[in-house]
Amino acid sequence: MTSSAITEEIQEKNPSNTERLRVLITSDVPMKELEVKLANLEIDVSWQKIAQPLTGLEDTFTFRHLKPIFDEAGKSGIDLVIAVDTNYDKFTLGVRKLIEGNFILLNIHHTSLILARLLLENHDSLSLKKSIFITDLLDKLFAKSEGPVSTIANLPSPLAEQEAFMEEETAETLYISENQEIILKGQNDSLGYLLSRILLAAKKAKSENKTLFDTLINIYNDYGFQREKNLAVSIEEPSQKAFFKKIIARLKKKPPLTLGMTEIISIEDLSNGTLKNLLSGRTMASQSPPANALQVQLGNNSRFLIFPTEQKINFFFTSQGKLIRKDDFTTLNQQFDQRVVKLLSEINRLGLEN
Questions:
Q1: How far apart are CA 186 and CA 192, in angstroms?
Q2: Which of 130, 207, 226, 282 has its CA 20 to 30 A from that of 100?
Q3: What 8-state DSSP symbol labels residue 38?
Q4: In this structure, what are the phi and psi dihedrals at residue 166, rounded to the nearest 5 degrees?
Q5: How many helices and strands in the chain, by DSSP H and E?
Q6: What is the pLDDT of residues 74-123, one digit of tens each?
Q7: Average pLDDT in the chain
Q8: What does the pLDDT look like over 54-81, one tens digit per residue?
Q9: Where are the alpha helices (DSSP H) in the chain?
Q10: Per UniProt, which keywords does this protein have (predicted)?
Q11: pTM for the complete prediction?
C-alpha cells in the first residue's frame, strides 16, 4: 500500500477537522469567553473583527455589514457565520443554502423561527414576548406547544430596560425585538445558551448533509411560507407629517375598496381596538395590542401595518404563501419585495388625492 493510500485510509477512520462544524464569529471586539464555551461543543470556532460594526440602538446587521465576511468564509470552508453586537444581545446568522453553497443572511424573523423551534423541543415551559414587528408565525409554533405569546406594540432596544422585560415571570420567557435583540430571560448567559442551541442544531444538520437553511424551510412547510418586510419613512418635515396623516385619516374614515388591483378586506384600528370588515360591514374587537397604528388586510393574503412615531412612519408588510422548496425561496422573496414596492406606491397615492 502506498503512503498516500495509507493516509487516505487513516483519514477515513479518523474524520478530519474539515468534517467538524466550522463557525466564524464576527464582532467589534474579540469574544474569548464565548469562543471557549462554543468550542466545548466539539466544533471549530474562529473569530474575525467585523468591518462595519453597528452604530446605534436601532441599527441592525445587514448584508452590507457582512458581505466581506461571507466572501472570505465561503472560500475558507466555514459552515456558519455569527455576527454579534457586544453592547447588546443582538446577533444574526449567515448560513449556507447548500452544504457547500453560497451564504445568505437570515433576518430576525428567520432566526426567531429557528430558535423558537429548537427551544420548544427542549423546554417544557416557555413563553414568548415579541415586538409587533416580528413574524406572527411564531404564534403558530408556540400554539402547537401551548406556550403563551404576548405581542407588544412598543418593544425597543435595549430590552433589559423595558417595562415588559422587568415584569416577573413564572417560566422562561423568550424576548424578541425588531432590532435583532433576543434574550432568553431565565438564563444567566442568554447569548451563550442561545448560540449553543443553534450550533448544536447546525452540527446535527451538517452530519445529515444539510444546513440550518433546511431547518427554516421545514418550518415554512409545516406552518406556511411567510415573508415580512419593515420599511421606515422619515416624517421630520411638517409637510411629510401632514402627508401621512392624510393617508391614515383616509384609511380610517373612508377607505377605498381596493389598493391598486387588490381588494381591501379589513381595516384594524389599534388606537381604539376595533376591526372593520369592509366586505360584511361588521365591526368587531381587535386582537392586536393598543397602539397608534392601523393594520390593513388585503385580498391576496397580504397585510400591512402603518405605525407612526414622531420621527418616522413604520410600514410592516406581511405576505403569506404555500409550501415551498429550497429553490423557491429567493424567487418568492423577490416577488414579494416587488409587490411591496407597488403597494407602497398605491398607499402614497391616497395622500395625493383631493
A1: 13
A2: 226
A3: H
A4: -80, -10
A5: 10, 17
A6: 999 999 999 999 888 799 999 999 999 999 999 999 999 999 999 999 89
A7: 91
A8: 988 889 999 988 999 999 999 999 999 9
A9: 3-13, 32-39, 63-75, 108-122, 137-144, 163-166, 190-207, 212-223, 238-253, 329-352
A10: Isomerase, Magnesium, Metal-binding
A11: 0.91
Among 292, 264, 261, 291, which residue's Cα sits nearest to residue 280? Answer: 264
Contacts of 314 (CB under 8 A, 6+ apart): 133, 230, 231, 232, 305, 306, 307, 308
Q: What CA–CA distance (Å, rounded) separates 224 from 332? A: 13
How far is CA 43 from each of CA 18, 27, 37, 202, 203, rounded to the nearest angstrom?
10, 19, 10, 10, 8
pLDDT tens per residue across span 158-196: 999 999 999 888 789 999 998 999 999 999 999 999 999
Q: Which three-class secondary structure state does DSSP give residue 17?
A: helix
**Cell numbers given for 182:** 433576543
User: Do 317 and 304 form a contact (C-beta atoms < 8 A)?
Assistant: yes
Angle of CA points 59, 45, 115, to nearest 5°: 55
* Pick from 54, 62, 48, 155: nearest CA to 106: 62
| pLDDT confidence of residue 14 | 39
CA–CA gap between residue 277 and residue 257 (Å, rounded)? 11
Q: Which residue has 503512503 as its cell numbers?
A: 3
Strand order in the sheet with 22-27: 44-49, 22-27, 80-85, 90-96, 103-105
Tally of CB atoms within 10 A around 280: 10
Other Cβ atoms less than 10 A from the Cβ of 345: the count is 11
Rg for the chain (alpha carbons), in Å? 23
Phi-psi region of 328 (alpha: psi -120 to 50; beta: other; left: phi over 0): alpha
> Which three cell numbers mark 166?
422587568
C-alpha cell at 187: 438564563
Residue type, 133: F
Q: What share of residues in the chain are helix, strand, coil (percent, to 5)?
A: 40, 25, 35
Considering only the C-alpha atoms of the chain, give the largest distance between any 2 of them, rounded to a whole number of Å: 88
* pLDDT per position as a tens digit, 2-41: 434 333 433 343 344 458 999 999 999 999 999 999 989 9
The length of the chain is: 354
